[in-house]
Amino acid sequence: PLGLKEGVLPTQRSSLSNAGGNFFMAGVGFSFIFSWLLMLLVLIIFVLGWNIYMFFCESWRNQQLFQLLDTPGVIPNFNLSELLGQEGGTANFSEIYRQCQQDASLWQTLHLDQSVSLDELLNISQYTGDISTAFEKMNITLSPISLLNQNQKDLLLRASRTGQPPNFTLTLEQLDQNMTQGSLLDLAAELEQLAGKAGTDVKKDLEDNARKLRGLDKEMQASFSRPLQSLKENIHSVQSGAAQLEAWTTAVLDKASKTQEFLEKETPNIIKNETWAFLEQLLDFFEAYISWAKSRLTQDVARCKPIAQSLDNVEVIGCDYIMDSVNAFWFSLGWCTLFLVPSIILSVRLAKFYRRMDIADVY
């Protein structure tokens, strides 16, 4: 437009105006030469991008893709149930994907209990019978148990018979008598009688001696009466106990013999019963552990939510980032291709008013 001037004849137009017209025609020529490549590029990207978007992205969002995969015969010679070892099963991609979104375990999602029976694989009761049979055949042999041999029994009986105390009758009779041969009180009384008959010089000594004898008797009674009584009681206790010593020894030997017989007869059974009780406790521990392992394996191990999240991430990356950009690219190129037609027409029409003419078009 800067090269155009009013009133100038078409044969006298400036070089700037003529160059603008040539550029218009060059643009028309380049459009005719290369527009088919642009159209082909738009067509290829459109066919790929739009079909992939509609087949994958849209069908993924409305779950039609999983319904298509679940349709029998869509994929030749492919059966998900048979692949998972489920005869007559109804496994499908839609249900697996839904359970994985809920963070279920692969054991529940793939219904592996139909192909692998944990109850049969981890059933400890099938071994309990063999263990019981082997345990019943076990023979427990113990070395002979001897609490007392015959020599020891004879020694105890001989000791009980010869261990009798001496005859304490004479001793007891002597203990019942006075501690002295004569009575100190009687002697004191005699001294007092003599003091009454004696003279003044001897009387006082006799009375003092009589007083001392009474005090000595009182002191001896206080000092020896209790020990003597205790000695008598001990002697009676020894006599009564010695009389029963042989009977006690015989009773103890009888109990020892019965105990030995009981041990020889019942000890193998006791050991066997206690061993079986311990074995049952171990089996209970194994059953508790197996129950825990089954619950962990079927509920907690190999949760498949990361798989569903990975598929969702693939959909987000592939559809929201790649395919949307591809579709925006072919859509923009399509509009550019569409505007080539009016641009060619406008370029051809405008070139007439910019180029320098060889012959003036008076009309």
UniProtKB/TrEMBL annotation:
**Listed InterPro entries:** Prominin
Q: Which residues form a coiled coil?
A: none
Q: Which Pfam families match?
A: Prominin
Top-level division of the source organism's lineage:
Eukaryota
One GO MF annotation is:
cholesterol binding
Give the transmembrane ranges.
Answer: 23-56, 328-348
What name is this protein filed under?
PRM1A protein
The lineage, from the top, is: Eukaryota, Metazoa, Chordata, Craniata, Vertebrata
Q: GO cellular-component terms in the record?
A: apical plasma membrane; cell surface; cilium; microvillus membrane; prominosome
Q: Tell me the keywords, alphabetical order.
A: Glycoprotein, Membrane, Transmembrane, Transmembrane helix
